[in-house]
Amino acid sequence: MTNDVEMKTEQEELPAFPTVHVLQVVKDAQQQHGLRHGDYARYRKYCAAKLERMRKAMKFTNTHNCQKRRPAKFVKKWLNAEAIHNVQYLNFGIFESERRYAEAMIDKITLEDNPEKSRKRFTMINSLRKAVLHATNLEKIVQESDRFDAPTKLEAQAYAAWMRGMCAFESRNWQKASESLKLAKTVYEKLAEATNNTTLSSLFKGRCREIQPQLRLCEFNIAESPGAVGTMTELMELRMQMGEGGDSSVDKLISEMRASATSAEFVTIEWGGMKSTVDDDKAKQVIQEWKQTEIELAQCQTPKERMALFEKATADTRDAIDRISDIIRRKSSENADTTVLQSIKAYLEFLKMNGTASRYLAIIDNTKSEKKNKPQDLLRLYDSVIEIYKEVSETPGAEYDKNLIEAFEVKVEYYRAFRCFYMSSSYSALHKYSEAAALFDRTLSRIQEAEGKLKKLKSNSYITNETAQSLSELRSEVDAAKISVRAARLAAAAGDIKTDSEVAKTIDERPLLETVNEWRQWNVRESLRDKKTIPVASLPPAFIPMPNKPIFFDLANFHLTMPDVEDRLEKLQKDRDAQTPKKSGKGGSAAPNTSASKEGEGQQGISGMVTGWFWGKK
């Protein structure tokens, strides 16, 4: 009895562990070992290696149960409250869970790249369940122990709730995922408010931002009418808030909701003088997507958002056209009737071209909003819009719709006025004022024609973005530009405005050493005012070719002055004549004279000439 009392008092007197910031430990490991670049394989290897090192260092290794005549059975050593003698033991639970989570993410990425590998989904779910098991065990140990403080318990609870929510989210158990993620978000928000550490606060808030998209998706899937317009509108707002780097699951959910909305109803189109029922699911989804896009455009605040909407819808339409073309090709080989499919394909072509032109118009608005823009850029964009609208009238079946033909003729005239305006602005920027003035007059005539045609088609449903107010604003811009061009032309005629070539002649940046023989004008006052310097020489100097390994005599040969040796040569010649014996008539004495003469001839070179100058005679 006394021993039990002593053990209890010792247990009560154990010191408390310091605070363990679970999220900070996880984030530091992820950022330093692969997840900064999304490399889950590297992160999984790091977690496995760290666990092995910790088990060996802390003597917390797994065991094998050996039985006679049977293979050894692996027995995992689980973490429990009695085994925790140090705060480092919590890393076993953290990194066991992280290792399983990394394995699940590897399987998820493989499944997204190769959808045919459906078995990867089961391995992903199993890995997430094991991660939840380790995270829940960690939470249980921390909650039951009195040696851990409140922040550590809250972080362990939030981490386990987040892991349960992610497992339920990937398992598509939306209700359970929503509850777990809400709990994790609530705990992290309270921790962010309670802490004074800015680093921890930013980590907690960042985790809340990560949880928000999954939580919203769970709420949308739990809703009773996922195909409702209000829910779709909220989804589009969420995608716009997330931006380009957001979660791809939002786009997937939008596609699924559109598909579910279109599968339950019939879609009928009217094109080419006939009504056709669309049976293909992809084509129905695209047609409904364009209807939804018209609603979503009213919520877009910037041209870039409109560009993203049109680009997504146009890409889906292109895929649907390819699908319908394959069906037509297959049915044509079977000698089946393809009239309805041809009509659907022509209608999809019309949607694609109209969406492409609308995307170009959004690009034009975005270009106008920028500070630095050139008229040439807008000119090319308006050319593309006009060409597309011309092709719309040539689409098969468009001739049966009189309103469409008239509307797109007006659209062509409408945007021709804008193109003419920016063309004249381009000529004005190039100092071609006469051409610019003529084009401005042509712009006014085009504006007048477009206004007259636009008034006749007020009730046309195809006229949406083209308004008379835009034409009146363009007219005021043309009037102002005409006045400035007229003034610039008069100034150029008077000589007050110099052309680019004249400016280049007066403002010459060549150094003075290169233009010594030229007369150059330089305005000293303007140079002093603009703090310009007169270049004397170009620094650093230009490179000149030189030999790779120059030899001394090759460079100094022409700079050597040879001494005058005329008097020495005369004396040497006299000495040579005195030493040479006279020739005899006998042939026997000719040999020595011959050798002596050869020796004398050998000394007549440069060595013979300088013999005796410095070292004397031999």
Overall description:
It is a single chain. With 618 residues, the protein is mostly helical. Among the domains are: 14-222, Signal recognition particle, SRP68 subunit, RNA-binding domain (Hyaluronidase domain-like, Orthogonal Bundle), CATH 1.10.3450.40; 375-496, no CATH class. It is 67% helix and 3% strand. The chain has 23 helices and 4 strands. The strands form 2 sheets. A two-stranded antiparallel sheet has the order 1-2. Strands 3-4 form a two-stranded antiparallel ribbon. A hairpin with a 2-residue loop joins strand 3 (267-271) and strand 4 (274-278). Helix 5 packs antiparallel against helix 6, helix 12 packs antiparallel against helix 13 and helix 16 (433-456) packs antiparallel against helix 17. It starts with a helix and ends in a 9-residue tail after the last helix. Residues 5-11, 224-230, 243-247, 503-507 and 585-603 have low confidence and may be disordered. Pfam families: SRP68 (PF16969). It is found in: Cytoplasm; Nucleus, Nucleolus. It comes from Caenorhabditis nigoni. Keywords: Cytoplasm, Nucleus, Ribonucleoprotein, RNA-binding, Signal recognition particle. This is Signal recognition particle subunit SRP68.
